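Page 47, continued from p. 46.
Same chain as before, 269 aa.
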Amino acid sequence: MDDLNTLLEERVADLPVGAPPIDAMRAAVRRRRSRMTVLGAAAAVVVVTAGVVALDAFDSTPDPKPPVASDPPVATDAPPAGYRYVGIGNAVIAVPEDWGTNDTECGTPMSDTVVIDQGVICMALIPRPASVESVEIAASRIMPPGAETWSTFELDGQPALRSPVKQSRASVFIPGLRALFTAESSSADADATVERLLDGITILQGHTTVPGYALLERDAYLAQLQELGLAAEVVVEDRKVGKGFVLATDPAVGSVVSPGDTITVTVSG
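Result:
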């Protein structure tokens, strides 16, 4: 053991001893720190990038989507092309646009026409011309004669009655709306024409019609307009009839109007 210690001491004594290599040590430290800085920056970039990816993956904000085209609103109160609606209250029937209104002689249609609110008519019997179609519209508080035998059906949610075609004539009665429609034809295919005309009856959803005024005084008629949500503008004309009776309306009786519309009412002065 003594020989070993002596040998070690001799070897240590042979080693050169000088000042510690401070500059070399500092350079090594700087190189080590530089490598750590680069690695740390690279790791930070990876972490930040991963964070962006993670945020994108879990971002709850919905992506903007193009608007989805929806079906256009259905104009349930619009008549078929080439037709117009005419009726009582919100019960109407589609008739060709070129039909007249009250084109009659003593109550008999002389051409294709709508018959509504005629008032007083003569009692002469006038034969109906050939190939004439007509629709008569009337307010009725009571069941038409023989209606208890008519077929029942539902018209736009309203209970209704329909008569069979007899002598080229048939009717539809809507008790809840007190509306009676009668179609008649003298054409070659009269029965089919009558059925087709009555198939054009419908119930309006957001509109009403100008009420009739036959034999009504001003105040009574204005009250009817008010009940329907319609406004009135009164025009007085000198006529050789009783004072205060309604003479005309604009739009005409049976025309489709919207609540809030103004009806021009001409009365005798």
